[in-house]
Write a structure and sequence with these properties.
Blueprint lengths: L2 E7 H5 L8 E7 L6 H9 L5 E7 H5 L13 E6 L8 H25 L10 H32 L8 H5 L5 H11 L1 H10 L2 H22 L2
Helix pairs in contact: 4-5, 4-9, 5-7, 5-8, 5-9, 7-8, 7-9
């Protein structure tokens, strides 16, 4: 009775999933009761590969500027209705600023603190797991960079590029194209990035720096 809407989000909903993709579900509730979490756990405990994002209608009315784009673009409505938090051009700028901060921090932290020498002498199994984890962290940062590219298209007054293929058709920058290629071809390039994640981290940082420069030039700040 508390269910207001179900939104299917992410790569599977867009038909561009990879071997790394899970199903993203946004669950919007009228309210949260004491048994809410047990109910949701019962729904998803035998459904591996799902990632559930839960918000109440009240929380949506208080939603911060960053992240609002997900409630306006790129989802399939499976059930119900909801009132999306307003999305303005200023919100898009704030979203891109936040993405630039987050992905640059993650890339630079890894470049500084997780070089090849940090694995010297480590148990091979632990070192392999560490390499896989670092590559996966950077993979998700690359996906966040693509979300920033999509927000930039909206801010420029263009239609929202629902898929990476549509976004790619509008791009010419080699760094941005390389980030999309890394996501689309992750199954093939993952072994190389697990061996050395630094080329991907540098691509992400280069994109973040360019995005900051573009925003700075536009706003004069």
């Amino acid at each position: 009775d508390d269910l207001a809407a179900l939104l299917w989000h992410g790569s599977w909903a867009r038909g561009e999933q990879t071997a790394e993709s899970d199903h993203d579900m946004i669950v919007i509730l009228k309210g949260i009761g004491d048994d809410t979490w047990e109910c949701l756990q019962g729904v998803f405990e035998e459904r591996p590969g799902w990632s559930v994002y839960v918000k109440t209608e009240e929380e949506l009315r208080q939603y911060p500027a960053t992240g609002r784009i997900q409630f306006h673009h790129g989802f399939v409505r499976l059930f119900g209705q909801f009132e999306a938090p307003p999305l303005t051009r200023d919100d898009l700028v704030e979203d891109m600023r936040r993405q630039a901060v987050d992905i640059a921090h993650e890339a630079r932290y890894r470049l500084i603190h997780d070089g090849p020498n940090t694995l010297v002498g480590m148990d091979p199994a632990l070192a392999g797991a560490r390499k896989a984890r670092l590559a996966r962290i950077l993979y998700y940062q690359a996906k966040l960079a693509v979300l920033a590219m999509k927000a930039r298209e909206l801010h420029r007054g263009a239609a929202y590029p629902a898929t990476r293929a549509e976004l790619r058709s509008r791009l010419s920058d080699p760094t941005e194209l390389a980030l999309i290629d890394a996501i689309d071809g992750w199954a093939k390039v993952r072994p190389a990035y697990e061996e050395d994640f630094r080329p991907l981290a540098r691509l992400i940082d280069a994109f973040a720096r360019r995005l900051v420069h573009e925003l700075d030039a536009e706003t004069g700040e």
